[in-house]
Amino acid sequence: MPAVAAPAPAATSRGPLVPVIAAVPAPPSTSSSAAAPVPPVARESARPSEDPSPEENELRALEDEALRQIDVVPILRAAGIDVQALQARPDGNDLMRHVAADELLTRSMMRDRFANTIYPHGYPRDQIMDDARGMSNRMVAALSREARIALLQTALADGSSAEPEPTFYGPDSGRVFAEGDAGDSAPQ
For residue range 30-84, what is the model confidence (pLDDT) as tens digits? Predict the structure, then answer.
């Protein structure tokens, strides 16, 4: 299932959002006055005449919990999506749940990456966040339903839905980012 990127409280650049709604352009660097219309959705659930499977019910319950922890309105607005139009759609709540779950999983994966990495003093924070979010988005998009359920359970049990932050060495550590290294990828 596709992943979603979320804006941080501070103005930082983000990678492109790829929600279940459809491919949406990256959030604009400046606010736009008109929200983009909500594109059509390809449903992947059971046929309308069938009852949802126990797995689908479990996933829906986990996504509901994620929606209670993640505010999806800024995420959708940053993507240029008209939130009121989305909420008015019959599948709007399903989409909002999915976006919230994607964001919770993305933040959880970013947190795991940051727990094992200390960046040199002066390394560009925006680059770190963009790289970590992009990698996490791709991982979330590749999850099977079973893996998504398992990881959502873990992320919800962790209880942290805040935007993760990278750790940097101190300025006197001797581990300082050289300006000419800007094209190199971050240390692992």
Answer: 333 344 444 444 444 444 546 788 899 999 999 999 999 999 999 999 989 999 9
Cβ neighbourhood burial of 66 (10 Å; 0-12, 13-18, 19+): buried
Structural domain range at position 122: 54-167
CA distances from 6 to 39, 40, 67, 169, 185 (A): 19, 21, 13, 26, 22
Angstrom CA distances, 113 to 14, 132, 176, stand at: 17, 7, 20
151, part of any domain = yes
Within a domain: 29? no
Burial degree of 125 (CB within 10 A; 0-12, 13-18, 19+): middle
Token pair belonging to 71: 């505010």
Q: Total structural domains in the chain? A: 1
Alpha-carbon gap, residue 45 to 98, rounded angstroms: 12
Phi, psi (deg, nearest 5) at residue 30: -125, 155
Whole-prediction pTM:
0.69
In a domain, 176, yes or no: no
d(CA 100, CA 105): 9
